[in-house]
Design goal:
By secondary structure, the protein is mainly α. It has a domain of 120 residues: Methane Monooxygenase Hydroxylase, Chain G, domain 1 (Up-down Bundle). 63% of the residues lie in helices and 0% in strands. 12% of the residues are buried.
Amino acid sequence: MMNAAPLFEDATMLEPMPAPMPAAGWTGRLLDCLQSETALLRQLEGILQAQRDAVETADLDTLEQNTYQARRVLRTLTEARRRRAGVLEVGLGRTDVTLDELERRGIPVGQDLMEARSDLRRTARRVEIALKLNSRLLTEASRTNDQAARTLLGGDTPSATWHPRGTRSSGSGRHLNRRV
């Protein structure tokens, strides 16, 4: 039986292999992912504006429809981000690579990909601001509507719930159908 020679004479000579370069066309698929995400964010931005308009006109049906549409777009956006992660995994072998890391890794990033990245970031910032604004507006509208309902029903109207004699009802036993 022969003695096998060690595979490496000097283990200190080992260096990590450079990351493999993505296959041709890979950045085109990444560009498509970024553009799809940007389009979805713009759609969400429009829905958020429609929600603000519905709050302004007190149109509860439109507000409810827009809320449903926003949820649908958010689910689709989640799928688009998964698609981008899949493209990154195929191209780089990792899903946690940020867009800024591409250049640092020596991956050629064309002007169109850089513009798509900037466009995605700008749109995401606008949507973030719109989401915060809508959250505040919807919270305030809800408070205003609750106060109006309490005023409409009167503070001392009889309650269907029991409370000790000599105390006032908080009205918490009432149910108000706002769809009527």
